[in-house]
Amino acid sequence: MKSTWIILLLVLIASTRSDAQTDEKTIERLLAEQVTSWNDGDIEGYMSGYWNSDSLSFVSGGILTHGYRGTLDRYKKKYGSKEKMGTLEFSNLVVRSVSASAAIATGVWRLNRTNDQPWGRFTLIVEKKPEGWRITHDHTSTGD
């Protein structure tokens, strides 16, 4: 009987890790889709990776923005043209599950533009919502 419980426990642990790996890959795909949308000049498509809620928070440049609409408006104001958007790349991406419904993603972002190549780091809290995995908090800094 004792060995049966041990086997069940090992199966449960393996299953939990497998689920976490699947979730991490799903989040990596979400971020890759954001890059594709950005590089297509589609800020609204890029924003589809964010939680469409007033509870979304975005921190960058010492400014805290609350809500999906405020974050979208901020992106549109700062990156209102394809030239300003440039080509986005994410690198050094690490996604780590912290529970069955939450993960932390960190990485480096870089914009390749004609006259400059700004870059920085980001930390995202990504949560499983009814509509799927969505970024609920974004803290982005510049490296320049």
Q: List the secondary-structure elements in sequence, H or E.
A: HHEEHHEEEE
The number of E-state strands comes to 6
Give the second-level CATH assignment, the architecture: Roll
What amount of the residues lies in strands?
35-45%
Structural class by sheet pairing and helices: alpha+beta
CATH topology: Nuclear Transport Factor 2, Chain: A
* Order of the strands making up the biggest sheet: 2-1-6-5-4-3
Supply the number of structural domains: 1
Whole-Å distance between the termini? 61 Å
How many helix segments?
A: 4
In the CATH scheme, the class would be: Alpha Beta
Describe this structure in words.
With 144 residues, this protein is α+β, with helices and mostly antiparallel strands. The chain has one domain (2-142): Roll (Nuclear Transport Factor 2, Chain: A). The chain contains four helices and six strands, in the order H-H-E-E-H-H-E-E-E-E. It has helices spanning 2-39, 43-47, 68-78, 82-85, and strands spanning 57-60, 63-66, 87-99, 102-112, 119-129, 132-142. A six-stranded mixed β-sheet has the order 2-1-6-5-4-3, covered by helices on one side. The protein is elongated, with a radius of gyration of 18 Å. 17% of the residues are buried. The mean pLDDT is 91.
